[in-house]
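Researcher: Here's a chain I'd like modeled. Treat it as a single chain, no partners, no ligands.
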Amino acid sequence: MRPSSGDCDRVSAGVRPVQRGWVVVDRVPGPDVDEFADPGRIIGALARAPHGTLLAVQHPHRTPEALAQGIGLLDALPRARVELAVLRRRAYREVHDVVAPYRVDGPDGTACGLLCMVNPEAIGHTEDVYPDVVAERAEVLSGLGCATSAAMLLPMAEHDALTPLVLALPDDPAVSLVDSGGRRHWVWLVGPGAAQDELLAAAGAHPLLVADGNHRVAAARAAGLSGLLALITAGPGLRVGPIHRALAGTGLTAQDLVTAWRGIGLTVDTLPFVRDPEPGVVVVRCPDEVLRVELPKDKGIDHAVVESVLLDKALGLDPESPLVRPVVDPAVEADAVLLIAPVPMNVVRSGAVMPRKSTYFTPKPRSGLLLAALER
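Model: Modeled as a single isolated chain. Structure tokens:
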């Protein structure tokens, strides 16, 4: 089934094939760490990794050599371009004018979708971004001229035609591998023709929002790109996990928190043990006590209320300061960890812009399975 002329206009404007790309032959070269992990984790992984890895290309200024010599990002990029060219010859094969149906199954859910190029101007943001991270990622995109990871995009619709198309594909993918987390990844390649047209029409049938990769989309815009690599997916087993807030280096005790929060009229109780948070309630894990805080109603999503009311208003803490860290692991060591309930999927799909690091979608696409030359 070919799309109508209206569909073709929309697809050409926003969703299109990868004109020149590279698909991994066997394994992604390097440690199984996504390039958008915490910088400290990236540095640690690179310190343990052999030479010649995709992660080192993505973070050339965080390699042991660059850190030892004090080399910054701009000075490290020329060597990264050379290393990327070597990796593409050694670990990838070149492809042209393809879209890549993709599936990942694991303990944290299932996602089916389409890896393709998308106009960053046609994508709606779901979270605010850190300007310094956007600037760094824009430099990397411009310097490499190649996308090494995909943003995850979510259609603004509960039902889609793309998922059944991917689930119906034959069991002969171009790539099939299992990552260190036990997730199996499949990538198919579909060239020009009716099947590609049908996949593109399904992928571009609804407005697209960022599920994971707000900084990648913003960086593509900042770099003046007309297309970025993206995985468009609606499930069928996508999960929205929580991202919490950890206070570190503040010197605040549990009693300090209780006094400050009760001082602005919030209800604060103690709990005998840590329990999962629920919408409208934050559970606070301190080294010697567990608190339960009821959030004021009708003030926005829980993450926004935590940052504006509990942190800024009550404690005088800037949510963007180094004293406040977004964390996925609720057991991280800190002065206190504010456990926040996941944002409901319907809120994500509403298009409302949330605070930075509010959602944690799983499963995520594996970085480095498909590389794409960038378009200006």
